[in-house]
Structures are given as C-alpha cells and as structure tokens.
Structure to design on (586 residues):
C-alpha cells in the first residue's frame, strides 16, 4: 500500500492527526490488513469489514479511551483492536497466549467492556453513563450494536431503561440486515423500511422510546459519518444513530456470501476464495448428525418441531428448516424466548427440539427451570458446543452446563460418547418421555464414519460398560470417553471404563458395582469439576461410604482462555497424558 498510514497508528491519538482525505486511504489499509490477517489465521471476518469506516470515525471523533466505547458481541472489533495499539500482535488473534478475538478489559484500556455474548452493550454503556453522572464526570458513552443483537430481549430492556434516563448515551445501530444468518423478525422488517427519522416522526420506534433518533446514514461514507458523529458529540441524553452497512464490505465474496464469510476459516486474501475441502472421508460434525437425525425423526413423528435462537447454520438446524420450513423456527438472538416458546409448544403436545449452544443457554437458565423443568414439559434441549470450543475462548466454552443443569429437578441430562449415541438419545427423547431432557455434545467432528445406523431405544439413566479391568475404574461422560477407550486399548490397561451416558439420573446400580469392585475411581469430563459429573459421583460415593480413592479430572475452577482445543485439554489436564500418568500412579 503506497502510503502505509496504518503503521503510523499506535493509538487513536495518532489517528486524530490525519486529514480526512488521509482517513479514506487509512480505511483501505485497515480493510486490507484485516483481510490478510483473517485469511491467514482465521477468525470473524464479515462483521469487522463492515465497520471499518465506523471504527475509524468513532476513534477520530471521540476522545477514546476517556470517552467510553462499547462493542456488542465484539466480533466486529478487529479494526478497533488494530487502531488501539494491537496491530503488531494482531497475528496472535485467538491463538493460545495471544490476544482475544473479542474486546477484553484486561487487554486494553480501550476495551471498556468484555464481550462475546450479544446484546449487552446498551446496558453496559448505560451503566457507565449513569456512573459518570453520579461521579460528575464529563465523557461520552457509545454502544455499537448490530441489527440482530438489538432485537434481543436484553437490548430492549436497556433501551426501555435508557429512554427514561438523562444519561449521555449514544447507541449506534449497525444495521447490515443480517446476523450470522439472515436476520429474522418484525424489527428487521421495520428497520429495512425505516427511512429518515424526520419522515417517520413519532412513528419511529426509537423515538417512541424517548431516544433522539437520527439516520439511517451510509456507514461506508466516512466524511458523512464523521460529520454526523461530530454533531452527536455535541448532544446529550439517549440518542440512537441508525447506520446502514454491508457485512463483508470490500471483499467481493464476503459481500456475496455473508453467511459463509462470517467466519470463513482460511482463504485467499487476494481472490477471497476458500480452498475446497473434501470432507467426505471425515466423520461428520456433531451438529450435522443432529441436523440429519432431526429430519429423519421428523419424517416419522409429525409432532417434532425445531427451534434455534439465531444459529441455524452453526447448529445445523438449517437442515430441518430446509426440509420442513413450517416446523423449524429461527427466533433470532432470543435464548430466553426460545426456551419458553418450546415450553409453550410442549404444553400442546408438540415435541420441540430446542437447539442452543451450551454457552448461550446460560442466558435462559430461569426459563429452563421455571418454564420447563418445574412443569415437567417434554422439551428436548440439544446443547451444541458443550465443553471446550477452542479459539472463541472463555466467553464461549460450554464449561458449565453439566454443573448448572444437574441441580435442576426433573431434568434428564445426557451426553453421547459418539454420533450413534447422539442419534439414539435423540430417538429416545421423542418417544414420549413426559419430562425434559438435555443432550449435550461438542463442537466439531466425532470419530465414526459409519454413524447412520438404525435407531435403538436407550434406557434413561443407564450407563454402558465398555471394558472390565480390576482395581481402577474410569467413569467418563460424553465424547471424552473416546480418548479414554483408545488409551485403554492401545496401552492395554487393565482398567474398567464406564461411559456414563446420563448425568441425571445417575446409574446408581452401575456405580454400586464399580465401588464394590474397584479401589480407585477416576472421573473425567470436559466440563467444570465444580458441581459436574465428578462431584455427582463423589457425592454418591460419600453417601455409600466408599472406601477407595476418587480422582476427579475436569475443567478447573477458573476461566479457560482461547487456543486449540487439544492444547486447552492439556492445560486443563483432561488429556490422554494426564490420564495415563494418573492411572500408572495408582
Ligand atoms: C447471546 C448470544 N447468542 C448468540 C450469539 C451468536 N452470535 C454471534 S454474532 C451473532 C449475530 C450478530 O448479528 P448482528 O448483531 O446483526 O451483528 P453483525 O454480525 O451483523 O455485525 C450471533 C447470533 C452470541 N454471540 N450471543
Ligand atoms: C461471535 C459468535 O458468538 C459466533 O460467531 C461464534 O463464534 C460461533 O461459533 P462457532 O464457530 O462454534 O459456530
Ligand atoms: Mg447485523
């Protein structure tokens, strides 16, 4: 790039020295930098490309970090990171020991709020604005939130509150008409139709909530953005600036196929092409086993419906949506609603398969307890991305589901070891259980090529004895059992292995037997050790006055950062080497 302005920017202070004409060149450089970095190292692409001009304009006009800028989700904040002192370490984005893929308070004073889950920015920025008022500090507070994220309940709650506050809060609605998948819902229709605030007057939804609404303006017109932000800077109180952008802006393929280029993996930085991969010789991803199995079951059972909160592609619910458009629903980023919607459907005899990433179910905890379990409604929760997820890091690991679900009465909790078990659990779940069940499985692929076997009904709460040894028993839950079994077989260990299958109800008769015949119990899981499967087995052993030793392997009581899942397993000591050493030491 001829001028290389980007390399002159170590902080937004440097940026503010540029002339507006130079900022246009800088936008090109920043875009090229993001494309090159993500092409080589993977990560979120489309969202950051769409806000290049907005990011430059915000740091140019506002006095960051004195003025507080909050990004929603944070997957669009790559430009922000690069302009705020992290250009030279950006090649470590999402790597083990590198910078996080999301804004993170411990990483930079410009990262005012840690994000990863959506729809928090307005609440957080409002909280900051109210704190500034109380402390009589003069600063601006800006929340940048996407069109899909603003449709979430939490964002509405924040708008509702902000509208009756006098807080100095500027909400920038970054409207690109898409989330990860095409945006859904009535608000999307409304936003698409919105013309200028002046034309719609008090009919404008944000004005009705007491916000000073401006826009929509072109989010790629840098001079216009700067002008408007300069104006906004002189204002006070709750205001919303509606900015229209194009996700993937500046890379043709990313603009044309916005879903694929949300996080495309490695690609050619010049052509944008994603290298063709032949996946036909690989075992399927668990999400695809879920999607195809759901369609198979739906063919046989017309009471089955599918629900996803904004993750049709990631969860493969899309397979069901394509096969049965009238029976599968993307409800937008609305985990709480998704769970209670499923509960409502279940009251009327439907069998909802509600697929939610483990980490995002955290948002709907009360709904699982109050709306589903307490009423014993037969909702089938399929919890994808359970366990460690890799590069998304601490905000996204599905570390807590086993622990937070196990204390809920009347909820069955299952975790398949492989694709066949996943299918059989889904099959069993729709046979008219009369109670809710959560089936959790991880990100990525299983290990079985031959997985599309005829269904078998599983006994709820019954484990599977995989090997019989003596003295030592390893109890695993979920896919980590594959590693355990492979270790036992390759090392020819005389160790008993129980694939627990169900955390709840616990297979007490199997546990009684292994306590009776073994001196040492090892539990291993890819969830937190605090309150997880090991705790449940330990509690039962205590109740039975088991005299042997119990060794718990699981995620520690600390947040685990990003990195390749296999590295994180080693760090968390739930890997093959750790298990082998432990077995040998016993
Ligand atoms: C609570 C929660 N649910 C789901 C997600 C997964 N997710 C990440 S980005 C995204 C779409 C966001 O769309 P939008 O707000 O329009 O931002 P854009 O990607 O278009 O910039 C979703 C569903 C999440 N991060 N948090
Ligand atoms: C930012 C966000 O929350 C999603 O984009 C998430 O990174 C998707 O994760 P998967 O890649 O596991 O679908
Ligand atoms: Mg969007």
């Amino acid at each position: 790039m001829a001028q290389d302005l980007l390399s002159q920017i170590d902080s937004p202070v440097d940026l503010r020295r540029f002339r507006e004409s130079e900022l246009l060149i800088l936008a090109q450089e920043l875009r090229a930098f993001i494309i090159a970095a993500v092409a080589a190292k993977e990560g979120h692409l489309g969202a950051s490309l769409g806000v290049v001009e907005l990011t430059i304009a915000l740091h140019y006009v506002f006095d960051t970090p004195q003025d507080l800028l909050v990004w929603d989700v944070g997957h669009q904040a790559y430009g922000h990171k690069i302009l705020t002192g992290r250009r030279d370490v950006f090649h470590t984005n999402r790597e083990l020991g590198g910078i996080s893929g999301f804004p993170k308070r411990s990483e930079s004073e410009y990262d005012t709020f840690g994000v990863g889950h959506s729809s928090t920015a307005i609440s957080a920025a409002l909280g900051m604005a109210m704190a500034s008022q109380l402390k009589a500090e003069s600063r601006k507070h800006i929340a940048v939130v996407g069109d899909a994220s603003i449709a979430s309940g939490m964002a509405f709650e924040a708008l509702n509150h902000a509208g009756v506050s006098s807080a100095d809060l500027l909400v920038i609605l970054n409207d690109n008409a898409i989330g990860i998948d095409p945006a859904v819902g009535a608000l999307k229709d409304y936003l698409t139709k919105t013309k200028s605030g002046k034309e719609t007057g008090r009919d404008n939804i944000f004005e009705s909530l007491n916000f000073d609404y401006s826009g929509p303006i072109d989010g790629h017109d840098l001079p216009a953005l700067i002008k408007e932000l300069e104006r906004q800077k002189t204002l006070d109180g709750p205001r919303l600036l509606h900015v229209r952008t194009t996700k993937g802006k500046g890379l043709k393929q990313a603009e044309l196929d916005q879903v694929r280029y949300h996080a495309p993996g490695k690609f050619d930085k010049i052509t944008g092409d994603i290298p063709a991969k032949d996946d036909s010789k690989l075992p399927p991803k668990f999400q695809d086993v879920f999607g195809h199995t759901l369609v198979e079951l739906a063919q046989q059972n017309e009471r089955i419906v599918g629900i996803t909160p904004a993750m049709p592609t990631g969860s493969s619910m899309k397979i069901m949506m394509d096969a049965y458009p009238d029976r599968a629903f993307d409800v937008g980023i609305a985990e709480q609603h998704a769970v209670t919607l499923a509960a409502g459907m279940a009251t009327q005899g439907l069998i909802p398969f509600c697929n939610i990433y483990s980490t995002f179910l955290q948002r709907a905890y009360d709904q699982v307890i109050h709306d589903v379990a307490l009423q014993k409604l037969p909702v089938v929760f399929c919890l994808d991305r359970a366990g460690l997820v890799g590069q998304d890091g601490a905000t996204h690991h599905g570390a807590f589901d086993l622990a937070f679900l196990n204390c809920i009465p009347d909820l069955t909790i299952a975790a398949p070891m492989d694709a066949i078990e996943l299918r059989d659990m889904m099959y069993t779940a729709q046979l008219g259980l009369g109670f809710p069940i959560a089936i959790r499985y991880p990100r990525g692929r299983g290990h079985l090529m031959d997985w599309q076997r005829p269904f078998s009904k599983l006994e709820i709460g019954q484990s599977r004895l995989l090997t019989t040894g003596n003295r030592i028993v390893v109890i695993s839950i979920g896919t980590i059992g594959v590693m355990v079994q492979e270790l036992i077989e390759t090392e020819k260990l005389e160790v008993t292995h129980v694939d627990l299958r169900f955390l709840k109800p616990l297979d007490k008769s199997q546990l009684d037997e292994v306590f009776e015949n073994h001196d040492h119990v090892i539990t291993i899981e890819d969830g937190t050790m605090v309150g997880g499967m090991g705790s449940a087995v330990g509690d039962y052993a205590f109740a039975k006055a088991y005299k042997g030793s119990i060794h718990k392997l699981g995620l520690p009581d600390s947040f685990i950062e990003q990195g390749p899942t296999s590295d994180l397993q080693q760090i968390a000591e739930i890997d093959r080497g750790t298990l082998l050493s432990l077995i040998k030491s016993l």
Observations:
- The mean pLDDT is 97.
- The pocket of 1-deoxy-D-xylulose-5-phosphate (ligand 2) is lined by residues 44, 73, 75, 180, 263, 314, 385, 389, 392, 443 (CB under 6 Å).
